[in-house]
Design brief:
Distance between the termini: 84 Å
Strand content: 25-35%
Radius of gyration: 25 Å
Strand order of the largest sheet: 3-4-2-1-7-8-9-6-5
Order of helices and strands: HEEEEEEHEEEEEEEEEEH
CATH topology of the largest domain: Pnp Oxidase, Chain A
Largest sheet: 9 strands, mixed
CATH architecture of the largest domain: Roll
CATH class of the largest domain: Mainly Beta
Structural class: mainly beta
Number of helices: 3
Shape: globular
Number of strands: 16
Number of domains: 2
Helix content: under 10%
Length: 287
């Protein structure tokens, strides 16, 4: 009996749910089965307590969200952790700097074809830790990755494009030309110290970012909130921050004409320096 017949059968269907969470090159795979299963050439870890809400199709974006619940413990002295603990650590104690995607699938136990059907795919929007459970609110917007969300750009004097962004009308600074390899000599809270952070030009680190690779291969990125001398302060931490020995850092941009001039990038300036001081639409007649 194939997958479709089992889906239509009232008594013979034995659906098993599969969950695959992807962050860069790392993948966490779990199943609602009572034991580990091998499907599609991958091993899916049995995770008692994992579940998801019903999948709905609606014209309202928020109503299409799916909530996935997984066991998770925040007590560092717990003697035994659930299989989903490694997944939950992506959001505790610090949120990830990049997007984590999720695929929800189904197959039927004892199906000789082991046919797997993808029920839903999206990305994690918001984690909520509730006691011994982690709720992950997910949006079905994986296919819309990179799509424009929000209002159109405004005409203003300041540059509103992200630094190092690429494309028509973007900053188009080559990040390879501005990245600096830094050997970290001290980590105090959210402040990193390195001799390479000293700058003798008008290019400031504020608003830039640092990037490093964790032991598990995940690349972490943190924004530089402030800089002074040989130290930079990040906007928030990471689990691997205390043991850092090296990072790669990129300076920020003040998003004004002087900043573009210092970087020889005025051709890509996103503001309007010739914007009149007086609005032509304020209701008064020009003299």
């Amino acid at each position: 009996m194939g997958f479709n017949l089992r889906e239509l059968s009232r008594f013979l269907g034995r659906p098993i749910q599969l969950f695959a969470f992807t962050r860069q090159a790392s993948v966490w795979r779990y199943t609602t089965a009572d034991r580990d299963v091998t499907v599609g050439g991958h091993t899916w870890t049995a995770a008692p307590g994992i579940s998801r809400s019903a999948i709905r199709e609606s014209g309202e974006r928020a109503k299409n969200n799916v909530t996935i619940k997984v066991p998770f413990l925040t007590d560092p002295s717990a003697g035994e952790y659930p299989p989903t603990q490694a997944l939950g650590l992506n959001w505790h104690p610090y949120p990830p700097s990049d997007t984590i995607y999720v695929d929800c699938m189904t197959y039927h136990a004892d199906d000789p074809d082991a046919e797997v059907v993808i029920d839903w795919t999206g990305k994690v929007l918001q984690p909520k830790i509730r006691g011994v459970e982690l709720e992950l609110v997910c949006s079905p917007s994986r296919a819309a990755k990179g799509a424009w969300v929000g209002g159109a750009r405004r005409v203003q004097r300041a540059c509103d494009v992200p630094v190092y962004s690429q494309g028509l009308g973007m900053c188009n600074l080559d990040p390879d030309d501005w990245g600096v390899e830094a050997s970290v000599t001290d980590v105090t809270g959210l402040t990193l110290s390195a001799p390479e952070f000293a700058r003798g030009d008008d290019i400031a680190w504020d608003g830039g970012f640092v990037r490093w690779t964790r032991a598990d291969g995940v690349v972490e990125t943190r924004t530089i909130k402030a800089a002074s001398g040989l130290a930079v302060t990040l906007d928030y931490g990471a689990s691997s921050l205390a043991g850092l020995t090296s990072v790669k850092a990129w300076p920020g941009c003040p998003h004004n004409w002087a900043g573009c001039l210092a970087r020889a990038n005025t051709d890509s300036y996103g503001g309007c320096m010739c914007l009149p001081q007086k609005s032509a639409f304020d209701g008064t007649r020009a003299i």
